[in-house]
Amino acid sequence: MGAYVRSPEAKRISRVSNLLRTRVEIETQQSSAGLLEAMNRRQTAQFLLQSAVEGLSVAAVTCYGSGLVGYLAKGAKAAGFFAIAPDIAVAASIPLIAALVWFGVRRLHQRVQTVTAAP
After folding, report:
1. Can you give the pTM of this predicted structure?
2. Angstrom distance (rounded) from CA 84 to CA 70
């Protein structure tokens, strides 16, 4: 059998076809890169919002917990079990409650990261 010889037109069509295929692949890759970049921006925005909400949640739970301490301190003082003013007890409990809630949220984050990182 003899060697197959392509005509110049066939070679030109093959080159044009390869160039078009390459151009389509490049445009597809650029489009995919743009989509990934947009997804990264949205993920960053969601993370910032989540952090803000968690900070507000710590403040809200601290406020609620200090309110409960206030009710307990007033009741204990009225019953004669507590000699400290309820306002002082509430003020002293706020940093403790905030620290406990903050550490609880951190621990929850660590557990979630451990579970989601597992293959």
Report:
1. 0.64
2. 11
Nearest to 84 by CA among 68, 70, 96, 98: 70
Give the helix/strand (H/E) hosting 37. Answer: helix 8-79
The one-letter code for the residue type at 20 is L
Contacts of 62 (CB under 8 A, 6+ apart): 94, 97, 98, 101
pLDDT tens digits, one per residue of 47-58: 889 888 888 999
Rounded-to-integer distance, Cα 70 and Cα 89, Å: 7
Q: How many Å apart are CA 55 and CA 58, to the nearest integer? A: 5
Give the whole-angstrom CA distance, residue 95 versus residue 62: 8
Token pair in block for residue 22: 């390459």
d(CA 45, CA 34): 17
| pLDDT (tens digit per residue) in 77-111 | 999 988 889 999 999 999 999 999 999 998 988 88
